[in-house]
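Hi support team,

I'm filing this because I wasn't sure whether my run with iron/sulfur cluster finished correctly. The job status page said complete, but I'd like someone to confirm that the output block is well-formed before I use it downstream. Pasting the exact inputs I used:
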Amino acid sequence: MPFVVTTACLDILDRSCLDQCPVDCIYLGERMTYINPDECIDCGACEPSCPQNAIFHIDDLPAEEAHLAPVAERFLRTMRAVGGNIDRGPLGADPPEIAALSPRAQD
Ligand code: SF4
Ligand code: SF4
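And here is everything the job wrote out:
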């Protein structure tokens, strides 16, 4: 069972999690990151690295974010984001559900 990035990452994208993943299965969208559940080995290394506390095990997702697990999975399959994000390269897109969200308010 994989880990999932929640919208606490939205418009932050500081990339701290990318270097922690031993299998390079965290992909960089335009506005947030996405974990490929088919590649995630459930090691948990990314979770404590996130300054936004945006990463959760799928079983511990906040209820209001539970819909994101299939959204990310569908998006990554559409983008053919498989085989490891070795170059940490951006995908240049987000799923429609994420792209439509309001910009994060400035702190
Ligand atoms: S739980 Fe491990 S394998 Fe899965 S995304 Fe996080 S660091 Fe990568
Ligand atoms: S560390 Fe957290 S805020 Fe930074 S890119 Fe990863 S999920 Fe987003």
